[in-house]
Task: inverse folding
């Protein structure tokens, strides 16, 4: 299985920590942030990883190399201009032509059993599964409404239907069908997910059990650094 890590962002909310290092290379509990993510991916059976690069991208590439020292094959997608999650993913479409893959933000720490989430995605024959957390503030990070069967509710049905609101963690499990909804220009992947949901494509939310920490701000990063 393959995965993409979005690591091109400038990390301005993490200044001054991100002046010298990209946010994915910041230390966290004896590893770098990106090493924790790579570990979780390996645990799920991922062996090939694509990482997009922009801000201080050369430092990420120098640090990780081709991934062989970590038991992985790592490729890179440099972006002259930031393409966002939608455009950045579309740019590497050929890398993900075959089967299920994961996409993840690079400014988080989590302890989810990704293999179980992937198995559930396949069991449902989903084209998109958004990994969600319950009981968290959605005002800062964005929320996703799902119905009783776990389907993501399309725009317009969110507040009128029987759905419940959950936090989107920035982790998605995808099938190549998503690429027909993406464009190769600066954009977010979220509108593509919402369009697919509005067309009644199999777009699901899966509520994950386990710790998840946003590392995108100085306060959150410092808090996560003190996890016992």
Result:
């Amino acid at each position: 299985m393959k995965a993409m890590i979005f690591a091109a962002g400038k990390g301005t909310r993490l200044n001054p920590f991100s002046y010298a290092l990209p946010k994915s290379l910041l230390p966290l509990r004896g590893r770098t942030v990106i090493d924790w993510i790579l570990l979780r991916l390996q645990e799920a059976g991922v062996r090939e990883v694509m990482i997009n690069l922009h801000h201080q991208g050369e430092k990420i590439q120098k640090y990780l190399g081709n991934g062989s020292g970590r038991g992985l094959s790592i490729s890179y997608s440099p972006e002259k201009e930031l393409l966002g999650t939608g455009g950045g993913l579309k740019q590497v479409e050929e890398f993900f032509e075959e089967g299920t893959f994961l996409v993840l933000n690079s400014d988080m720490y989590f302890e989810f059993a990704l293999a179980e989430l992937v198995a559930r995605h396949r069991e449902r024959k989903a084209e998109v599964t958004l990994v969600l957390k319950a009981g968290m503030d959605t005002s800062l990070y964005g929320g996703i409404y799902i119905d009783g069967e776990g389907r993501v509710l399309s725009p317009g049905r969110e507040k009128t239907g029987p759905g419940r609101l959950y936090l989107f963690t920035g982790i998605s499990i995808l099938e190549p069908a998503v690429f027909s909804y993406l464009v190769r220009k600066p954009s977010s992947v979220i509108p593509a997910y919402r369009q697919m949901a509005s067309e009644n494509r199999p777009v699901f939310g899966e509520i994950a059990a386990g710790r998840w920490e946003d590392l995108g701000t100085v306060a959150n990063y410092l808090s996560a650094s003190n996890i016992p």
Notes: The radius of gyration is 17 Å. The chain has a mean pLDDT of 89. The helical segments are 17-20, 33-43, 57-64, 84-91, 114-123, 190-198, 218-225. The first helix runs from residue 17 to 20.
